[in-house]
Amino acid sequence: MLTNFVNRVHFKYWRGDLFGGLTAAIVALPMALAFGVTSGAGATAGLYCVVLLGFFAALFGGTPTLISNPTGPMTVVIAAVITRLTSEYPDQGLYMAFTVVMLAGCFQILFGLLRLGKYITLMPYTVISGFMSGIGLIMILLQIGPLLGHNSKGGVLGAVQNLPEWIQTLNPAALTLGLFTLGLIYFTPQKIRRIVPPQLLALVLGTILSMVFFADAGLTRIGTIPTGLPEFVPPTFTLPALKTMIVDGAMLGMLGCIDSLLTSVIADSITRTQHDSDKELIGQGIGNLLSGLFGGLPGAGATMGTVVNIQAGGRTCLSGMIHAVILLMVVLWAAPLTEPIPAAVLAGILIKVGIDIIDWNFLKRAHVLSLRAAFIMYGVMLLTVFVDLIVAVGVGVFIANMLTIKRLADLQSEDVKAITHADDQTPLTPEEKELFRQAKGQLLLLHLGGPMSFGSAWAISQRQAIMSDYKVLILDVSSVPLLGVTATLAIESLIQEAQKHRLAIFLVNGSADKVQQRLQRFRILDRLPADHVVSDRRQALEKAIQFLHQPQEVLEVTTGSYE
Q1: InterPro entries, from UniProt (predicted)?
Q2: Could you point out which of 47, 57, 221, 479 has its C-alpha 20 to 30 Å from the C-alpha of 548?
Q3: CA angle 81, 74, 359 (to 5 degrees)
Q4: How far apart are CA 274 and CA 288, in angstroms?
């Protein structure tokens, strides 16, 4: 660990790292408390996550300036996990939820070791946009209860169902504090923002306001936060719940990977550097594993903390470690100062987070860009909010991939050209057109261009229906750089059908090694006479013309030799 730290830290940036870490810690404190409370695990769980994930993800990660904290998407997922497990297992549910956090960390480490970092973010943007917007809506809906002075219960559906009752019995003091918090975050002047984050300012002023003017208003507050180091939480599970916990862990781990790597890309664009995706996943995994082992929330690379860290001068992993150590001091000594913070103030902070998570830019123009994109994005968003996060992503990715495959198949089908006569539209040279005319309608040229995957197999198979009208088939694969298994099987079937109709077959083989290897593995080249496999289309046309000019009895003997 010490060697890794020394190799990655350049102490000439220590001043910038110090200010970057301090600023990131100030931004992270209200978020950690708010996310901890809204998750159902308590404010301390958010602080433990900042300390453990923040420190070890910075130490072992692959993005020097990344700040790792609890994030909105991760908190929404773990809140749903905690709600379900504690309702099914009242005594062990919370500890089982921390085990899910550990599993998420293990999955992230596995993804990094398998070098899957560069593939993690290869997800359709429509799915990511819908999912993130759904997460933002969930966060807003879950905070309506605390904003009105009530404890949120029953998840999203419970919030929607209880909304009329909450409005009728709202706590004016709680609503006032929540709106005050939102207003302060939105309208704090830029000059003040440069000195203190508006979230922290709202947290402090909102708490002071509640103690001075609303001390007897029956406000829900954070309450006592134990000081001292976190206690070890051993992995806890039951066999009936293990399968679901593993699925939740995989989902949480994948979400953390996407969240972190997208933030790493933002950090790269600001610092003009290049992060190591696989190393970052391993660092995030170690941090989340340790956070779960000590009763902390899951987390990921936090965009807000990362940006303020860089703007304040952070340049190495030392800044992320400093931010974690500063918040460790809060856990050890300053926790009593957070006890009077009202839940309504935290709700105001989180509603702003939810609003920021929603992809407003894409929401406003999705229907203009593409109706299909809008359908996928809105579908994923609604499934995320009202059904299930895993179902939403699974259905969204499946539909998006099916539509993409359909478009690719249509494009590949256009590259399967059946040429039966020479005209001005035919992609042939003048010499090839002249040779084609000499065939007098007895020659079928099937030209394949571009990569041929399973999307082109249907178009190739379609050409079998017209082969009975010709005496010679020229199959031109010289422009094919890649030949998939399904497309190769379609070619094999095409050749078998041509032989069945006693056509002479000439193959124009290209120079692509992968295509030749594929044809050899399927023994397609063995089905043809050696002199019928050529490397040039003009040569194939010349041989076809020579073949057609032979006497009828020779033609019958030659075509019969295929069998």
Answers
A1: SLC26A/SulP_dom (IPR011547), SLC26A/SulP_fam (IPR001902), STAS_dom (IPR002645), STAS_dom_sf (IPR036513)
A2: 479
A3: 125
A4: 23
